[in-house]
Each structure stands twice: as structure tokens, then as C-alpha cells.
């Protein structure tokens, strides 16, 4: 008679550690929201930067992320310190990001292209500091426990903090910034303080993370320093069989969100005729994050995560397409459409995180290596670049349509073509890419059945 091998007890994450980890997403939620919502508009309508140049400023620093994020992830995979593998990098980000973020909105009295150059330099430094924190922070989630119930609880804490941070920063930051340089400077200082508090709280709150031991990922032949090139890391990622399909649908969704978010201030100003409406529009998109998480968990169990992801994409696409009729149907209709977008967006946010954790767990089971940092670095790099690409494309469309840059003291009437881009480019383009992500969801190979058969239980199930 053969005695079965004992099953190791799952790692239980203490509630204090769950909260300590979750509060760190106040930083990620705030940072992903405020520049995406305000930076393009700040340059074109406050600093009088041409729309094409403003779009480049938002986008070009993100190309640096394509190199930096995977490098940070790989380095954190191989870091050994008394603080663990991830936390030293988180502390480095906490000490640098608030300073660079505040400087981005507190420049000298410049306008036009000189102002664009100043913001670009500060934004590059800000993106660098943010990568030091974000990549190891996200990688930590896949390593804190090997039990799917614990991972689900951990991710729900994270999403609660993300939803609250996005909702508050997206509504408070525009109200504080207003349409004057002084308002944006004050907003930059307040957001910097929030970022600092969140990152330090997470650094100290994760001091007792019961991270499971995992073997180090082997170095690739010919690689030097911290790890292989970005091309080699993509080759590694393709070997998982699940990461690239998930990355493709995630990029389509992030591009849609980037266009929609960066277009919101223009939509409120030139379509609804009320710049202050950007706050209520944003609350419609983000508010469902706080109340629909249990619904999306149930839907992912009933239809599997792949089916729930397709449903979320369909809701996003339908709501965004419907918003294109707001010019004739009015602001109440626009808010209702964006509420539909928000319900779908909430599902996409939760499912992206959960499915990425499943991919990492599956890869560890198959390869026996630790590549959470590499995968998370590649994901973060592509996510930030594609999100910023949405603002770049919108800025170029506005510029091609004759959008006239201005300052707060001399607002100008925009040509009809620019107003049309604000309405249709900011709604139908996101709808198109959300629809593409719906089709791409069918190519994602991991399901509850395949993961269970392979010995891995899906995250969040």
C-alpha cells in the first residue's frame, strides 16, 4: 500500500498583511489616473502646448518603460536582501516618485514647446520612479500565497483600494487643479503626499509577507547583468503559451481606456459644455469598481474568467459606442452610457489581475522557475505604453483636425472638425478596441478546467 505524500498547508496571509499590501494600490490607482486624465489637457489648455506635441510628451516617456519595467522585474527576481526580493525596490520608488510627480506640475512660467520640454523631462523621471515601485509590487501578489482562496481575498483587498483611489483622485484632482497653473501646482503637491503615504504604508505593511520559496529563474545563455534583453524576455514569455494572448487582449483594453480617459476633459468641455462634468463622468466610469466586484467574481465562476472577460469587453464597447450619440441626446444620456462602460471596466480590471496571477502560477508549475517579476515587468511596460498611446493618438487626431491650443486667460472656439474628433474619436475608437479585446479573449487558453487538471487552481476562484 502506497502512502500518499502529505499535502503542504496553504500559506495564510494575515489580515494586517492583506491590508498592508492592498493600501499600496492607492499609489498605482492614483498614478494611473491623474496623468492619464489631466496631463494632456493641462498642456493644451493651460500651458498652450500644441496638441501634437502634448501627445508626444505623454507617450514618449512610456517607451522608456518598455526597457525599464522588464529590467526592474528581472532584477527584483534576483534581488537578495534583508527586506526580501521586492521591498527594496518599492522603497526606492517611495523615496523618488512623490518628488518627481510634484515637480511635473510645478515648473517655471513656461508655455508652448518650452513648457512641453520641461514636462517631458519630469514625466520621464516620474515614469522611472514609478517603475521601481509598481513592478515589484505587482509581482509580490503572485508570491504571497499558493492557496487560491487566499489569493482571491488578497486581490479583493487590492481592488477595493484601487477603486477608492481611482474614484477619489479622478474626482478630487480635477476639482483642485481647476484651469489655472496655481491649481495644478497645488494638486501636484497633494497627490505627491498621497503617493508617499501609500507607498510607505505598503512597504512597512508587507514586512511580514509569508512569501513561498521558489527556485530562481535560470539565466539565458549569453545574457549579462541582471538578465536577458527585452526581445529575449518576450521570447521567454511566449514559452508560457498563455501570457501573450492575455497581453494582447489587455493591450486592446488599455488602449481603449487610454483614449476614453484622456478624452474625458475635452468631451465635458466641448460636447457637454461643462468642464466640471469631467468629475461626474469619471465617477460613472470608476464608481462600479467599488460595488460590482462580488458580481464579477460570481460571473467568473459561472462563465469562467474567459467568458466573464468577454462580457466585460462587450459592456465597455456598447457603452462607449452609445456615448457617441451624446451630442444630440444630452448629458444625462452620456452619464448613463459611461455607467455601462464603468460596469464593464470594473470586470476587466479585476479579471486582468486575476488571470495574470493564474499565468504566473501555471508557469511556475510547468517550469519550476520564478519569473513573476519578468512577466509582471513585461505586462507593466506594455500596459503603460499602450495606455499612453491612447492619449498620443487622440492628441494627433485633435491636431490633424485643427484643434487650437490655448491658455486659461484666452479660451478659443474650436473648429467643427476638432469638436467632431472629441465626440467620435473619444468614443468610437475605444469601442472598436474593446470589441477587438472581446475577440482576443477567445484565444486565451487557461480555464478553471485546464488549470485544475494541471494541478493549479485559478486565482480568484
TrEMBL record:
Domain of life: Bacteria
Keyword Protein transport on entry: no
UniProt entry tagged with the keyword Plastid: no
Keywords: Membrane, Transmembrane, Transmembrane helix
Cross-referenced InterPro entries: MFS_2, MFS_trans_sf
Pfam families: MFS_2
Transmembrane segments: 49-68, 89-107, 113-133, 154-177, 183-206, 246-271, 277-296, 308-326, 332-357, 378-398, 418-441
The name this protein goes by in its record: MFS transporter
Organism: Streptosporangium jomthongense
